[in-house]
Amino acid sequence: MNRRTFLLGAFAGTAAIALGVNLYSPEFSLPDEGEGKDYRLLFSVLLPVMLDGALPDVATHKAAAQNRTLDAIKQSIAVLPDEQQAELFELLDMLENRLGLLLLTSSMTPLLMRSPAELTQMLESWRHSYFTLLQTAYLGLRELVMASYYACPEHWSRLHYAKPELFK
User: Fold this and answer.
1) Chain-centre distance for alpha carbon 149
2) What pLDDT is stored for residue 100 in this prediction?
3) Cα separation of 49 and 108, whole Å?
4) Within 13 Å and on the Cβ side, how many CA atoms surround 108?
5) What angle do CA 119, 77, 60 make, to 5 degrees?
6) What's the first-to-final CA gap in the chain, in angstroms?
7) How far apart are CA 43 and CA 74, in angstroms?
8) Rounded to an integer, what is the distance from CA 18 to the centroid of its chain?
9) What is the pLDDT of residue 34?
10) pLDDT tens per residue across all 168 residues of the chain
11) Contact, 30 vs 39, CB < 8 A?
12) pTM to 2 decimals?
């Protein structure tokens, strides 16, 4: 066996193993998988980064605001047109998939294992990317999170907004 054959075989074997690990799905399924998948874990990782400065400082209030926002995100996704839902789910699936993460972020490290600084850097690179697709992904996620957060009346006080009084 010559060196070229050995290197080509090693490269092909490594690529096959990497692809096989990425495509392999275990026989068990998590409770949130399937048609009703709401990506709650993924958004719970992104919320503190995207809402930095808007969330309350007290831990219990912060957790309550995050949970309320996660519920609002699920409701917001439900009213999107089918085409936009499909695009959003495709993006979210890619963010949960290691091969998708590699394509979108140049790293296979799951978002759950990244620090807030790394997540901020990732989002900022999308925001200022030359690729329109990444800019659209950033804007879509940002608008979904912000709209869902500020759709909750209990968050309006941080904007100094009061609901208008209707006269009877």
Assistant:
1) 15
2) 85
3) 19
4) 6
5) 55
6) 91
7) 10
8) 23
9) 42
10) 677 787 777 777 777 666 665 555 555 444 444 455 768 889 999 998 998 887 888 888 888 888 998 999 999 899 999 999 999 999 999 888 888 888 888 888 888 899 999 999 999 999 999 988 899 999 999 999 988 888 887 777 777 777 777 776
11) no
12) 0.72
Six-digit token string for 47: 């919320």
Tokens of 81: 């047109």
Tokens of 162: 């009061």
Residue 113 phi, psi (nearest 5): -95, 0
Three-state SS annotation for the chain: CCHHHHHHHHHHHHHHHHHHHHHCCCCCCCCCCCCCCCCHHHHHHHHHHHCCCCCCCCHHHHHHHHHHHHHHHHHHHHCCCHHHHHHHHHHHHHHHCHHHHHHHHCCCCCHHHCCHHHHHHHHHHHHCCCCHHHHHHHHHHHHHHHHHHHCCHHHHHHHCCCCCCCCC
Residue 105 has which token pair?
């972020």
CA distance 137 to 158: 27
